[in-house]
Amino acid sequence: MPGDLVLNVNGGASRVSVAPDTPLLYVLRNELKLRGPRLGCGRAQCGACAVLVDGKEARSCILPVSAIVSKRVVTIEGLPDVWVRQKGIERGSGQILHPVQQAWIDEQVPQCGYCQSGMMIAAVDLLARNPDPSVDEIRDAFTNTPPSPHLCRCGTYLAIIDAVRLAARRMRG
Amino acid sequence: MLTRRDFAKAAAGSLVVSLGTRAEGADVSREVDPSHLEAWLEIRADNSIVARTGRGETGTGMSAFYAQVVAEELSVRPEMVTLIMGDTDRTPDGGYSSGFLTGAANMRKVAAYAYRKLLELAAEHLDTQPVRLRAAEGVISGVNQRVTYGEIVRGRQLSLTIPLKGEPVRFAPAGKSGVTGLEWGGMDGLTVTGNPPVKPISEYKVVGKSFPMPGIPAKVTGATVWCCDLELPGMVHARMVRPASLGSTVVSVGAVDKARFPTAQVVRKGNLVAVVSPNEWEAVRAARDVAASTQWSRWSGLPGSDHLTQALRAHSWGQPAASKGDEGNVRNALAVAAHTISASYEQPFIKHAPIGPFVAVADVRANGTATVWSQIGHLQASRARLSRLLGVPPENVVVRWLDHAGQFGRKTFGGDGAEADAVILSQMLGRPVRVQWSMEEDFAWSSFSPCWFGDVKGGLDAAGRLTAVHCAFHSPHMFDARPLGAILAGASCGTVLPGGFLDTQWPYDKVEHRLQQVFAMDNIAWDSPYGGLRGNIMRTPGQRQQNFLLESLVNEAAAAAKADPIQFRLDHTTDPRLIGVIETVAKAANWEFRASPVKDARRNGNDPITGRGVSAIVRSNAYWVGLAEIAVTPSTGLIRVMKFIVGVECGKIINPRQLDRCIKGGIVMGVGEALKEEVTFDKAKVTSTDWSRYKILTMQETPEIQVVAISRDDQGFGTGGEAPNALPPPAIAAALFDATGVYPRRIPLTPEYVKGLLAASEII
């Protein structure tokens, strides 16, 4: 039965009234109107729904919302704030992007773009663990990190590698 | 540069998009008049430009290209151009989203007409002659005079008639082709006629530069309104309950457990069964529950994918559906050839396999009007189909385009997809309905790129020159884009277009005698209730498969002639453009000229051995060559594509960076097709229904890709989005031969297949 849950999403507290077994993905999209994460497979096989939970990548399509209460959830909409807080940047009037997002624009990564929200989340996760990943380490991370490879049908993998390395350089400053 | 979605958001102010609904007023226009300039192009007082095309962005960067083409003719920066794509009520010309070249030709002419008109008006304004004026950056200037486009149009309509030919999509008279078909002629949309003076390619400042794809920033920040994001007031979420097999019909439909799912409801029309709820997760759970208690008839009319080859061979194919060449001459030439080659190749069914399953939203009103949001690749065709489904005139239906996962051709004919499901449910419920397919449903029930086999024969003379070629391609239907919802509901929604089309452009004109035949059959299990495995076109359709035959034959012939496969190609063509791109790529690759297989080729062992292979394709004024470098481990059969070098000459390159992206994506798709992709099914249903069973290329498996792109100002424009995915399969097959001396006759080259192939050939 639906009950009130308080979630910490993108740095703010949100109260939602949903069944506790509702996958986080549906709560983010339909209750909180955060459409960055998208439904791909619904079985944690593709990565399109990936979000950060306490800084680590998680597949929101299979994660019951009750499991993330008291944890910090970040979607791509919240990545700029993550970067602002991380670097102690003063927020001006201009739009600030996370270096991973900026690199995704600069390297023109998305084609259809459907999987790319999850790809950027995976990149942020990887760069938190490894600030200077080699090409092989990036390939390994996007392919062999459980629960599944991050899949892109448009074939943007090489652009993603370039963008991760560009973001890594900029984040190391 | 604004995208259409930015524009939509600015207008709607929120994610709950009101555009195209009755919120805009009852007299909202449902179509534009394409003979008026403003249907195509609006020049605004602030110098900004709105351009409209009936084509949609397919993810290959077309939105950047269209803006560049318009900006070039009008001599403005492309950032000044806002593009509106696809929507049937707001765009003029219809046509295929994949048809960039024809769509861009329309935009170029419209912009050229507009430019001429602007010069005339500027001349009036400045009291001078048009010939004395020049435009740059939206400013027309003469000697000590200047006026902006915005100043010219301020307070008036830029009235101009656009000359057109063609007709809108419409249905053919009933019974015309045995099935209710879409009128083929109307599918191309409208073409702008006349010959307004266009800017010579040599003077281009915008086309040829790497402008970014407009939609990317919004996709990266999460601001894009995707098709799956749309939310309308009063909308319900639907999940479909699909038949237990590809041919099962309803025996009894399960009921919703109202205690557990109080807001859910079953909706049924014929064999179309859905569960709807205002709460999406409740719809998902209730649909699972209803599916578990719904009874379907038993059916098992498929051959099973393990027996697909035998089933295809057993079919009585009859006469070719299409044929090119002289059969008698080819037979005679083969009979006197010094050496002949005979081979058969095959490929199972594969899928378009987008990351996001089908989704659509429909709002059908009691007054017989409907608005549908879709990721369709041919919006006017979808509109024609859906109006047919609803039994209303096309004027009553608006189809709007929103971003979604790349579809790679399956929506080209305005069909397949969730739109029919959504329209039927919305009509029955009298409220907006969002239909989201699941991954499993999409793999099992969307259309397929059909299986095929091909028999080839080649004749070589004593000097090792190819004198005769015979390619006989056999495949089930490739044009069945009927949407599943309409089929299951037993509703009329068009169309199976005639199958079996020949699609090769012959690059080797020095081969004197050649015969290309295409044999067609209906869908596999066509006689079953829903028409079986629905074949549909997929990126580089027809030619991708048929070119595999041709290029494999050329590779095998080169080996028989003990000739280098690149030299062999050069020796069999006089086409300077093909020769040019092949020579450029060979040089870039430091190609070592030698025959295949490599000297130390072997078929056993635990150590990998390397090989290389070549393929070429000519398509839509573009010349391509691909070189694959692989490593194969005989004991495991595992192939690793180390590097793929691709060369293209496609006339004037509009946007080098977007072309490069598009080519690389195509190569990745083609490598996956060569190595991994295969639909499996038993006698009743598709079994490869998730990503662990339908495997596509991963990042780790992606080769280094080197693109060699040649731009020329003297050959017009060629296509770049299609063809690259056709290069890897024949090149990788040839590379396996180079490494092992065994020519594979089937793709995908899975480890099991390759291991078995090498082991079997060792025994012989």
List low-pLDDT spans of chain A. none
Q: Which residues of chain B sit in consecutive blocks of at least 5 with pLDDT less than 50?
A: 1-27, 174-181
Kindly state the percentage of residues in helix of chain B. Answer: 25-40%
C-alpha termini separation of chain A: 49 Å
Overall pLDDT of chain B, averaged?
92
User: For this structure, what is the CATH homologous superfamily of the largest domain in chain B?
Assistant: Aldehyde oxidase/xanthine dehydrogenase, molybdopterin binding domain
The radius of gyration over CA of chain B amounts to 27 Å
As for the CATH topology of the largest domain in chain A, it is: DNA polymerase, domain 1
Query: How much of the sequence of chain A is in beta strands?
Result: 5-15%
Overall radius of gyration of chain A: 16 Å
Side by side, the strands of the main sheet of chain A go 2-1-5-3-4
How are strands sequenced across the largest beta sheet of chain B?
11-12-9-19-16-17-18
Measure the end-to-end span of chain B.
63 Å
Content-based structural category of chain B: alpha+beta
Total domains of chain A: 2
Overall structural domain count of chain B: 5
The most extensive interface, with participating residues per chain, is: A-B, 61 and 59 residues
CATH architecture of the largest domain in chain A: Orthogonal Bundle
CATH superfamily of the largest domain in chain A: [2Fe-2S]-binding domain
For this entry, what is the oligomeric state of its chains? Answer: heterodimer
